[in-house]
Amino acid sequence: MRRPKPFFRKQTRTWYVQLGKKQINLGPDEDKAWAKYHELMLDRDEPTAAVTSVLALLDERLDWLNRRRKQSTYAKAKHYLNSFARSIPAKLTVDKLSARHIAKWIEVNSGWNPNTLNDAISTVQAAFNWGVKHERILRNPVTYVPDKPARRRREVVFSAEQWTLIRSEVSDCFGDLLDFLWETGCRPLEARSIEARHVDLENDLIHFPPSEAKGELRDRVIYLTELSRSIIEKRVHRDGPLFVNRNGRPWTKDAIACRFKRLREKLGQPMCAYAIRHSFATEGLKAGCDSLTLAQLMGHSDTTMISRTYAHLARNPEYLREQARKLKG
Q: Distance between CA atoms of 299 and 187, rounded to whole angstroms?
């Protein structure tokens, strides 16, 4: 999927692309330059403009994501789209693409879990939906994928007793990360992204501007408890991400998953980082926190996600019996 890319020349304040031995002027406006570039590449790569290469469309989608979305979003899409591209013929056109190509790709990656497979297929489908929306193609040839697995909801929550047991098995810097998640209910990615510039100890909070928050629509504020504040205070003078491992490297998603895998094997019970956030919500509801307040603390815009995803109280008959008794005095 390597193709010549537009580049900006500061001296002339103009975009160009190198095609063979010729440099083509794309103009000073970035969006128009990229649009002209993709028209050129379509005419260059295909016998007629009416036939679109799958690889060309995927490249164009990645170009757009790279310029318009967070790098984490771009990197995730690049991983899946490159993987899919390697599984199909290099000259396959969109009109010849079908769900069987995705089925073959799924078979090659049978080691992926259902949630990963769902994300991967959705990413490919989104690329062709984008192509339709931006008038690159007339229809999405893979709207329906018969073998697309459903996402499995994470149903793991920790009781206070289970959490005490888990924490007793962790004594290094990973413990501080776990405590911070338990105290604040923030997303694991948010904790991994905290830098000194986000910290406001005067008001006991962590602040992410909209451009760095999930959804990129509004500010994300994480409110600090006494314990979570003390954890941040120890790290606030550090450059880059505040939470690092014993080697001084920022925690990654895979590194955290590896630590939880070892804990699962040792304690013999299901667990993952996101279960801490679920537990925060469940314990908050049990403690009497109203759904709207809890949603704000967890960074949701309304109570929908609280009621649909995090309220695991239906699996706690003892709690429900106690609430039923309270209702009747």
A: 9
Q: 42, 38, 66, 62: which is closest to 53 by C-alpha?
A: 42
Contact 166, 178 (CB under 8 A): yes
Question: Three-state DSSP class for 111?
Answer: coil
Tokens of 187: 């997303």
The residue written with tokens 């408890």 in the block is 225
Q: Where are the alpha helices (DSSP H) in the chain?
A: 30-45, 54-68, 71-86, 99-108, 114-133, 160-168, 173-184, 188-193, 226-233, 253-267, 274-286, 291-298, 304-305, 317-327
pLDDT over threshold 70, residue 301: yes
Answer yes or no: are the C-beta atoms of 61 and 130 closer than 8 Å. yes
Residue 37 CB burial class (10 angstroms; 0-12, 13-18, ≥19): buried
* Mean pLDDT to the nearest integer, 58-82: 91
pTM of the full predicted structure?
A: 0.64
CA–CA separation, 222 vs 184, rounded Å? 7
